[in-house]
Sequence to fold (116 residues):
Amino acid sequence: MAEIEQPLAQIEQGGEPQRSEAPDASGSPEAPGLLLRGVMRRRSHDRSLAKLAATPKDDLIEHMGLAALVHEVPYRLPDWDREVVRAHSSTIERAMRRGTIVPVPYGIVFRDRKHL
Fold:
């Protein structure tokens, strides 16, 4: 819990949260993960797949009639600064203009497509 409270307290005081760019405890680079933005029915985005992805790191993962809108991030607790959370929200809002999406709160990261 202290990991989350520290950056939020710094934001409220006007400071920038400190980001860790260091490798994980094993000394290797951080493993990739998938930040979940929302889930939608597959047919709601058929015509506008390319328009849902805000950046090259955004992707739609389809499974059994559903599609998960995800963003590639390191597999760890994500950074909690206002700009990152706003980008998450604006991507969901853009997807809502193209179809029905069940939004997901910021911060849910999966290890890979299989776990998603």
